[in-house]
Structures are given as C-alpha cells and as structure tokens.
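hey team, just a heads up i'm posting the complex here instead of the shared drive bc the drive is being weird again. everything in one block, sequence lines first with there labels, then the predicted structure for the whole assembly after. its two chains so it's a bit long, scroll down
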Amino acid sequence: DAGVIQSPRHEVTEMGQEVTLRCKPISGHDYLFWYRQTMMRGLELLIYFNNNVPIDDSGMPEDRFSAKMPNASFSTLKIQPSEPRDSAVYFCASSFSGGRARNEQFFGPGTRLTVL
Amino acid sequence: SQQGEEDPQALSIQEGENATMNCSYKTSINNLQWYRQNSGRGLVHLILIRSNEREKHSGRLRVTLDTSKKSSSLLITASRAADTASYFCATYRGSTLGRLYFGRGTQLTVWP
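-- predicted structure starts here --
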C-alpha cells in the first residue's frame, strides 16, 4: 500500500503568492494532520481532521492559512498571501483510531516551502 | 503546544555503543510513542507503549515508561551509523481524540 502522499515535494515562490499543498492520506485512516517543522519552532500541529471534519485549528498561525478536506482521500493546506516566515517543511500525517496500534501516525515525505 | 521534552537535545556516540534518550511529559497519558526522523524525511513510528505497560522491546529498541515520574526512555542497543537520526517522543492523552503531542526531539549521531 502507498503511504501518505504529498505534493509538491518542493515549492519555491515569491512573497505574496498563493501556495497550495496537497495530501492524500492512507486509505481507511480517519484522522488527518497538518504539521509545520522549522529549526526554531520544531514540529507544530497546525490543524487536524476527523472523518473530514476539522477538529482543532488552533495551531493555524493566522488567517492567511486555511485547510480543507473535501473527502476522505484528499486535503489541502493553502497559504494566501505567502510570506518569507512561512518557509518551512510542511508534513501531512494520517492515523486510524481503531485497532491495537491506536493513533500511530503515518507521515508523508513533506513539502519543503521556500518563500522568497 | 508541545507535551514531551526529550533529553538530551543531542547525543553523539560510536558504533556499537548503546544510546539512551529520555522523555518527560506533564499530563496523564493513554500511551506514549517514539518516532524517528532521518534528515529530510518524514517521521516514522518506532514503538508504542501503553500507560499500563512498564517496558517494551522491539528488535534493538527497548522502551520503558514510568507513569509516576511521567517519564520514558528509549534505549537503542549496539547502535549503527544508520541509526543517525532525530528521535521524538509523542504522547496520546485520550482526552484530545486522535492528537499526539510531540517533543522537540533528540538528535542522535552514530560515528562509524
């Protein structure tokens, strides 16, 4: 089975541009998480969904960030307008709440975003 | 917000030696998990220990959990250069369904 799929793997854009990151979770998983990782702040949870419904978006830095999960197979994280301080690696992860391995998270390879 | 705090922040050892990393947390938990992150990659789950367990083994990994001290340790025996990575502990509280709270991680370097 394929793991969590993220696209693009690398994104370089200019300040003020819109950026859309994409994620396909593992089939059958009911939780989806968006994280941001930087050297300064470590791994930060931005938002997470359960059965396509946002549960906690308190980690979203500001209104420039938005996330959607229109169906169980797809989620997007959008930054509009982007700023240099948004430069980071963005990870998507998914998990399954049932079974013995409860809440083990599976991470995608990440999207490295550079905002010039 | 982060829950776990790993100690040390960085650890450098020779191949063949054992590596021990510690994690402390603040609130009661349902389980505690350890993850590894190789440079430029996503985190990978290593092992999970439930709150009613005290020790767990998986290959060269040994995890202990002391809920009275709110701490856990990860021991990697007979380390290899390929073990070089960052190691994170993550706690699952149960009260915040689905969410894990990650620490800042320990950077382990194993020299050949």
